[in-house]
Specification:
The chain is an alpha+beta fold. It has helices spanning about 1-10, 15-25, 65-75, 90-95, 95-110; strands at about 55-60, 80-85.
Length: about 110
């Protein structure tokens, strides 16, 4: 619904046209899928090792909660999962592009 969208997905006054186009042409929406209620991420296979360091950036108002990301972090077979929280919602790269880019660039420099 509109209130959820504005609070948890995209807090911009207007939805950017590229995002709206992607949504309009996405096919089945994930949030409409009955499988979502029972979805649980599974551990990576042994073929996925070694996995690179991982950065999770999420918004303070994101529908992806700390509980979700804590669960994801346990799936990696290393202790190189870094999480950053930024004021915003799910589409942080659109809401806070400069801060998002700086976080991402900083993470990449630290891993280089």
């Amino acid at each position: 619904n509109e209130a959820f969208w504005k609070q948890n997905q995209c807090r911009l006054e207007e939805t950017p046209i590229l995002l709206q186009n992607a949504i309009d042409n996405a096919g089945v929406q994930w949030h409409e899928s009955p499988q979502l209620a029972t979805y649980a991420a599974k551990s990576t296979s042994r073929w996925a090792e070694p996995l690179p360091p991982t950065l999770i950036i999420r918004g303070t108002h994101d529908f992806v909660t700390r509980k979700c990301t804590d669960g994801w972090a346990r799936l990696f077979k290393h202790n190189k999962v870094y999480e950053k929280e930024v004021d915003g919602s799910h589409y942080l790269h659109l809401e806070q592009p400069k801060q998002y880019g700086e976080l991402f660039s900083s993470f990449l420099r630290e891993q280089d």
